[in-house]
Design the sequence.
């Protein structure tokens, strides 16, 4: 469905030196920095998949989304989506995709949201009955009813995002690109957006490509993660695999009957020590929970314990660090 | 047509700000009213310029004002195109299965120019009645051609100005020489200027096609070449074709460089 093979793209960015003199000089002669935004990207995404596209800012996420949505021509490589080469058949191709930019709106600021939808119907030339079906379904699933006749500038950010997602699905696209769809949303709206993406993916076999910095989005929605950094793909596979790879420690929190002196155990650091509660960081490549508990139990009267894997954010940060991005 | 739907949306948006719209319309009316008063005072002092009478120049002025007001009203999207590139809205245009030209044209609409248009049409009516010439169907058709020719040429210049944004991101002020400057220059029959200005605005940017050439036919100075002078406005309209071609080139460049 989506196949990218060795896509590369280099941008020339005018070099700007400090100072008025240099700025004046650059009016006449410019020097360029060449930035490899994409350095041989290849992957395949099948119909109905949800893929999390992650990487730090400036890694090449937006650039590759632009290539896939047909608004940027790469320098080299091949890209085939739904039988089209996106940038060659732009006008035919874009009718098959929906794109949501979390930071920008495609709706009209001063008119009721429903009117913006009607304009989209005309732009995409959606037949009347198909439009009605689509709109009813989306309004129901995203709960737009309460504010669909309100001008966009008067609705909340969460409502706006729901309207944006609906707007990009009115023409019933086969692929949906979501660029940071949960940015700035409150917890309830985030959950609503995630729930909707899951539902529509299951019902319509919609393929979803999602960029985000919120790892909860990824955990809630998908198992497949493509990690991009410095224009290259660093990982393509399940989140569980990444976790496993970086799963080198456990945070162990123990509660015990009062005990004054800190208890040290092998292959573990004490992160905090109170007289009834302590937090250890366990290096599980060299020890395990049972050994740690055994040595703790010999000195403490343990009342309760919690063992936690590192949070995903920390794993991702470790991953970025390992790849030097 | 999709453009009508865009217009409809703009009018809905504008209705949210009714009071400010009426003030802008009134302001635009007076701006062009004073420009016209300036010409009147000039002629009161000098009688005629290079053989052109007040009525003739007023007609010329009114045609240019009308064409420019209509262009600014409808082709405002190109005038404001720089904003579209900077805030990334042009990406959205490319994501839709419609031509970029029709979407950019539909992206903005400046209803306040209606004030200017009203004043221009009023002047046009005045000038037409002052002119010591007998009006005929052919002359009225020519006058309409002139206005349309002006709209096409000014729109072409706006498109060129927008195209510059693909290359520099920040639009060049230089294009205003041809829009606002062009409007001022073409308010008078071009024959009053020096040769090179006249040649430039005949062969490079064909203001002459809706300016003094058809005007000579209207005031009976064509000297037997009636049909030729009558049709020059239609030739002028062709100016928009190379502008569209250059625009397409700019879009292709944008697609390969991004922003």
Sequence:
């Amino acid at each position: 469905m989506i196949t990218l093979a060795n896509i590369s793209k280099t941008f020339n960015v005018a070099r700007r030196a400090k100072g008025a003199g240099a700025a004046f000089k650059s009016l006449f002669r410019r020097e360029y920095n060449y930035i490899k935004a994409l350095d041989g990207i290849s992957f395949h995404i099948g119909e109905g998949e949800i893929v999390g596209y992650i990487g730090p800012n400036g890694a090449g996420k937006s650039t590759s989304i632009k290539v896939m949505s047909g608004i940027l021509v790469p320098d080299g490589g091949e890209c085939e989506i739904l039988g089209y080469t996106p940038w060659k058949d732009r006008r035919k191709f874009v009718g098959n995709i929906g794109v949501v930019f979390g930071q920008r709106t495609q709706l009209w600021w001063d008119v009721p949201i429903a009117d913006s939808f009607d304009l989209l119907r005309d732009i995409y030339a959606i037949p009347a009955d198909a439009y009605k079906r689509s709109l009813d379904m989306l309004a129901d699933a995203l709960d737009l009813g309460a504010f669909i006749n309100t001008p966009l500038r008067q609705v909340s950010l969460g409502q706006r995002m729901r309207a944006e997602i609906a707007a990009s699905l009115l023409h019933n696209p086969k692929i949906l690109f979501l660029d940071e769809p949960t940015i700035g949303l409150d917890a309830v709206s985030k959950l609503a957006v995630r729930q909707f993406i899951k539902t529509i993916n299951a019902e319509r076999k919609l393929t979803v490509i999602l960029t985000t910095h919120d790892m909860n989005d990824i955990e809630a929605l998908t198992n497949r993660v493509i990690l991009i950094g410095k224009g290259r793909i660093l990982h393509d596979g399940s989140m569980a695999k990444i976790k496993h790879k970086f799963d080198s420690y456990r945070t162990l929190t123990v509660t015990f009957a009062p005990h004054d002196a800190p208890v040290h155990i092998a292959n573990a650091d004490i992160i905090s020590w109170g007289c009834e509660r302590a937090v250890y960081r366990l290096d599980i490549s060299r020890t395990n929970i049972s050994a740690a508990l055994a040595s703790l139990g010999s000195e403490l009267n343990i009342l309760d314990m919690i063992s936690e894997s590192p949070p995903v954010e920390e794993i991702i940060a470790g991953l970025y660090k390992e790849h030097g991005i | 047509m999709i453009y009508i739907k865009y217009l409809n949306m703009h009018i809905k948006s504008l209705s949210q700000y009714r009071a400010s719209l009426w003030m802008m319309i009134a302001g635009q009316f007076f701006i062009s009213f004073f420009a016209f008063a300036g010409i009147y005072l000039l002629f009161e002092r000098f009688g005629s310029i290079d053989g052109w009478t007040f009525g003739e120049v007023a007609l010329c002025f009114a045609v240019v004002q009308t064409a420019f007001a209509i262009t600014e009203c409808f082709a405002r999207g190109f005038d404001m195109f720089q904003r579209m590139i900077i805030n990334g809205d042009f990406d959205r245009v490319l994501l839709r299965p419609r031509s970029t030209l029709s979407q950019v044209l539909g992206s903005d609409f400046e209803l306040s120019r209606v004030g200017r248009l009203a004043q221009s049409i009023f002047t046009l009516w005045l000038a037409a009645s002052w002119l010591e010439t007998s009006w005929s169907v052919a002359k009225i058709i020519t006058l309409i051609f002139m206005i349309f020719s002006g709209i096409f040429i000014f729109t072409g210049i706006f498109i060129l100005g927008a195209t510059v944004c693909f290359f520099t991101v920040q639009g060049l002020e230089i294009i205003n020489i041809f829009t606002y400057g062009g409007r001022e220059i073409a308010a008078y029959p071009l024959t009053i200027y020096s040769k090179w200005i006249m040649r430039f605005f005949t062969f490079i940017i064909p203001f002459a096609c809706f300016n003094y050439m058809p005007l000579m036919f209207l005031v009976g100075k064509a000297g037997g070449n009636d049909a030729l002078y009558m049709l020059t406005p239609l030739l002028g309209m062709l100016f928009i074709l190379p502008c569209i071609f250059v625009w397409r080139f700019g879009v292709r460049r944008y697609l390969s460089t991004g922003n």
